[in-house]
Design a protein that fits this description.
Order of helices and strands: HHHHHHHH
Helix content: over 70%
Shape: elongated
Distance between the termini: 7 Å
Structural class: mainly alpha
Number of helices: 8
Length: 201
């Protein structure tokens, strides 16, 4: 069962990342929000599978990956569910929109970056659980570990206030960064499917 959950979660995560990239390229905001929610759902199950398959000496890393993954998912789903419901369905005052409307780089944007910070920490700990037996495993391990570096940037940027409403080129920069992330995370999904597929039933 652990193996099946790992494979299915990794496949769903991969499809969600590709859907997110396609939505960003076409400018379909609602599609990017919805696919982001499914990234979060599948990510938690992925982290659970890494934790379940960890060697006894790496169990703490696995539990940490699952815990940080859950915190990421909570932040992420909150941000994008608000966009799909409150922001989309209600007429917001300018003050409320500045906080809740994601493209205005307010509260929801900062909370989203915090979520990605937590996601990066989760992947770092997940990388510590990978038992390397093939070159593909080694690539997966290092992609997960290096992804952890994004935690620093995602935590610091909101503190510096570099993104704000009305900033020149902010939307383009954000799209470029997210597409780069999709390109980075896609092989993690592919390699995770292979990794779990080779595990014992």
């Amino acid at each position: 069962m652990n193996r099946k959950i790992g494979i299915i979660a990794s496949a769903l995560n991969l499809l969600s990342v590709l859907g997110f990239a396609a939505s960003m390229l076409t400018g379909w905001l609602m599609g990017s929000y919805l696919s982001s929610i499914f990234i979060a759902f599948s990510f938690v199950a992925m982290m659970a599978a890494f934790a379940a398959g960890a060697l006894p000496t790496a169990k703490a890393a696995g539990y940490s990956a699952l815990a940080f993954g859950g915190m990421y998912a909570f932040c992420n789903i909150m941000v994008y569910f608000v966009q799909l419901t409150t922001v989309r369905l209600q007429a917001l005052s300018p003050e409320a929109a500045s906080l809740l409307n994601y493209p205005q780089f307010g509260l929801m944007f900062n909370l989203d970056l915090l979520g990605y910070c937590l996601m990066a920490v989760a992947t770092f700990f997940a990388g510590l659980t990978v038992a390397v037996s093939t070159k593909a495993d080694a690539w997966l391990k290092w992609l997960l570990l290096v992804h952890g570096v994004f935690a620093i940037t995602c935590f610091v940027l909101p503190l510096l206030g570099l993104f704000h409403a009305g900033m020149q080129g902010g939307e383009w920069i954000g799209t470029a960064v997210l597409l780069f992330w999709c390109a980075y995370f896609t092989p993690i999904g592919v390699l995770s499917i292979r990794y779990f597929a080779r595990q014992a039933h």
